[in-house]
């Protein structure tokens, strides 16, 4: 990491392990938490966070893991609970020598042989088992049936989410979106944040970033075309949005993902 990231969130749990370089820190929720050789940063699903890079500080190489619940469920069924709030009991965890060694080994394999995906996944699996067993109450963790089935989610919030996911380019005014689902802007924002734990704007940015990654990795569409599909008025605005949220430019991301032949998150 050599530049800041804006405040954002993800629908899956997220963990950061320092591999090399300067110690640094992240804002998670309303806390500032340090990322060091001895301490990992742990972020629950939909927990807002950001990174503020200090100008002039040496870059930090970070192993940033965004973990899909279904992938974790292949190890232990109740690990699908990672998609719910509170999976990590704290936003920081003391890194054991074993975890540090596993993280370093995975990072070296990804850099040294980008195409060996089977070996990367094997090492990633070993690291994830060690991390989750150390930093979560995994034996007691249960998936949220309420969230999985949509219970308790107001039908107007569900409609807003459907609109954002179906046509993110068409959502250019939150006041109009609120009106389209039958709410005032203020009521819409309160209801959405109470339900989803992030603002409608942050959620829309998540949708745009997810779709941008899919377009960049899985299609040959030009960046200008992707920009237009996602509702950015000019490609430069899309490039800045992507860099501010993902840590690299769209063109760099496409080049690296093409080299690797997969869609691992790569932050530069």
Automatic annotation (TrEMBL):
InterPro entries: AraC-bd (IPR003313), AraC_XylS_family_regulators (IPR050204), Homeodomain-like_sf (IPR009057), HTH-like (IPR037923), HTH_AraC (IPR018060). Keywords: DNA-binding, Transcription, Transcription regulation. Residues 158-256 form the HTH araC/xylS-type domain. SUPFAM superfamilies: Homeodomain-like (SSF46689), Regulatory protein AraC (SSF51215). Gene3D superfamilies: Homeodomain-like (1.10.10.60). The keyword Metal-binding does not apply. The keyword Transcription applies. It holds the Pfam family AraC_binding. PANTHER family: HTH-TYPE TRANSCRIPTIONAL ACTIVATOR RHAS-RELATED (PTHR46796), TRANSCRIPTIONAL REGULATORY PROTEIN (PTHR46796:SF2). This is AraC-like DNA-binding protein. It comes from Rhizobium halophytocola.
